[in-house]
Amino acid sequence: MSAADLSVGVIEIFLTCLRGYKIITTSLSCPEEQQSLYHRTRTQRARLTVWGDYFGLTHSTSRRYDATEKLRAHLKSSYKIGPEILDTLNNVAELFVNGRALQEVYGLYKVAEAEDGRELLLLDPDVADIAIHGASRLPMSKARLDANREAIAYLSHCDWEITDPDRYSALLHKLKAANDDLYLLALPQAREMMDRALLSELLADKDDVLTLLHIRNATAEDAEDDSPPSRGFFSGSYHTLAQAAKLRARGNIDPFLKRRLLRPPTILERADFALHPQLAWVGGDACLAVTNTGSAKKVVLVEFKSYLIDDRAHRRLEDLVHRLAELLCAGDKPFEFRLPPCSGYFHDPSKGRFGFVYELPPYLHLRHAEEARVPAAMSMRKPHSLMQLLKHLEPIDLGDRFRLAKQLVAAVYTIHACGFSHKNIRPASILFLPAESGDRGGGPSKSRKVALRRPYLMGWGYTRPDELEFEADHERRLIVPRDGTVGIYQHPERLKSPYRPYKQIYDIYSLGLVLLEIGLWQSIESFVSEIKDFTTDEFTLYLRKRVVPDLRGQCGAIYEEVVQSCLAMKVDVEVATERVMLWDVMARLENCRA
Questions:
Q1: Which residues of 284-307 are buried (b: 16+ CB within 10 A; e: fewer)?
Q2: Angle at the Cα of 172 (from 171 to 178), degrees rounded to 5?
Q3: Which of 322, 277, 273 is nearest to 300 (CA)?
Q4: How far apart are the C-alpha atoms of 501 and 506, rounded to whole Å?
Q5: 544 close to 556: Cβ distance less than 8 angstroms
Q6: Whose CA is closest to 265, among 149, 193, 347?
Q7: 519, CA 20 to 30 Å: which among 295, 414, 544, 594?
Q8: Which residues contact 345 (CB under 8 A, 6 or more apart)?
């Protein structure tokens, strides 16, 4: 069978499988004690959905055979892959399109016939036979596929309930194993993209705390499952989903309840840290410090939020800082947040600032022999911002630039999927630690190499996307950055209307400017000095017409188009549209290789 013929079969059976999931996810009556089973099923439906999305499959009948070049290329990559995918999808369809097995084997009970009044006896005999005994595989004819669809449409419009959770768990195990097989047949980079898409597919528009906690519990349960056939191979994916669901729930919980149910971020003492301002960066808004408590001296990173306010506004400022600390100090964040562990924050009233304290990897801790010469030892541990590297480091390899761009886009996608906004994406907020030494004794690199493959996204603004106007006003007025580059990276509409609630799409604009700098390996400040009299809109237009096209020669047409799309995004789009646009940016960027 040719790849084209296989793709037709895959598309048809895939759509049948998605309809099958509707039997459980839209018409199933689940009491509270069965919510875990329900949400574990929703997770598997989401996994199948993003698998199809990745390969260009769509729910739309009119576009069913369009945009499947990626699927056909995947099927051509090995003569075994197509039949294995088709066989796996057929196994899933067979689980759903078999009313008798659903009831007698898998612990489901059909409470009522289809809502539209159709009864099984009134269906076409072939359709009724399929609805009772299961999907027919051969021959792969249009008539047979249509009959399969009719049967599953009937079953999905009935009302069902779980009568035997243990037997239903057996069905769930088979669905999970089938998805595992589909994912294992894809390339590793494809699985990474599917895992990222899964965050939005499962969590998008979910703001009810109880629902999010159910999702968290269900995915955490799957993360602990090491049974055959995958034996825990996908545990990391489920663990990330559990982390993201929990974090999104934290962001939506009522503040009054939050103070009573959740552990608050740790408030530290300024006196417990010996700051080293000579090892500062980002215009003095961050530096290294050494702890004064305990027998061992530990190197930490301190990032400051400065302010200039009167006493009346101070309480409101403290609330905003506390809310930011709740996110930064949350102990279980997805890795792609690109944020080091934050142990708490302190107030430094003499300098008009709050300091957020971040833990550093063990190889950057001071060894006993170095404690007597702290200043010299600390200089080897100083991080570098992307802003510094753009100005002082020779252009890095194109492959490394592509990797960095992909990591930052994935970070923003994950942050948005968890319900937050960064609000301060710029080169000064992107941090790199010293590389680890290859010597036996460990420690930082003696040649002062930078760990370019592990960026950290620092410098967060106040993180919720839906601040009230009052909060947005205080954010703009009270926290004063010490370098003048922040406005360059803000969306023109944000600068025109700073009192309006922040939109996640503003982050994408800022990200586009950073991607431009990474691609050219040139600071955007070099362009600002030439066009000081431009308005923000004129500046953006200048970049898009005169600067961004230079990317084509260095990074290729795809990278140039990605940056153009980030800078051209309209601010009046729906959140769902913004999510699709960012996914499109991430998907296209995956095709950039060197």
A1: ebbbbbbbeeeeebbbbbbbbbbb
A2: 95
A3: 273
A4: 11
A5: no
A6: 347
A7: 414
A8: 265, 266, 267, 268, 321, 325, 328, 329, 354, 355, 356, 357
CB 520 within 8 A of CB 391: no
How does residue 31 score in pLDDT terms, banded at 50, 70 and 90? confident
Q: Across the beta sheet with 384-385, what order do the strands follow? A: 384-385, 430-432, 456-457
Q: Which helix (H) or strand (E) holds 110?
A: strand 108-112
Nearest alpha-carbon partner for 34 in 218, 159, 212: 218
3-196 and 270-589: identical CATH topology: no
239/531 Cα distance (integer angstroms): 48
Tokens of 373: 């010469």
First to last CA, the chain: 35
What digits encode the pLDDT tens for the residues 413-426? 999 999 999 999 99
Task: Report the half-sphere exposure of 115 (CA within 13 A, side-chain side).
Answer: 8
Helix 69-76 crosses helix 3-25 at what angle (to 10 degrees)?
Answer: 110
Radius of gyration of the chain (CA): 27
Among 330, 344, 240, CA closest to 301: 344
pLDDT in tens, 154-184: 777 788 889 999 999 999 999 999 999 999 9
Does the 270-589 domain belong in CATH 3.30.70.1290?
no
Mean pLDDT of 8-18: 86
CA 446 remoteness from chain centre: 35
Instruction: State the pLDDT confidence band at 474, using cuts at 50, 70 and 90.
Output: very low
Return the closest-CA partner of residue 74 out of 189, 176, 235.
Answer: 189
What share of the chain in percent tops pLDDT 70?
Answer: 83
Q: What one-character DSSP code corresponds to residue 397?
A: P
Give the span between the Cα atoms of 205 and 199, in whole angstroms: 11
CA distance 252 to 324: 14
Q: Write down the pLDDT at residue 462.
A: 63
Closest C-alpha to 155, from 136, 122, 174, 128: 128
User: What is the reported pLDDT for 111?
Assistant: 81
Mean of pLDDT values over 265-273:
93
Q: In this predicted model, what pLDDT tens digit does every residue of 478-514 receive, in sequence order?
A: 444 445 566 789 999 988 887 788 899 999 999 999 9
Query: H-type helices in 262-397, by residue range?
Result: 311-328, 374-379, 386-392
Domains of the chain: which residue ranges?
A: 3-196, 205-262, 270-589
CATH topology of domain 3-196: Four Helix Bundle (Hemerythrin (Met), subunit A) (1.20.120)
Amino acid type, 446: K
Q: Encoding tokens for residue 50?
A: 């993003």
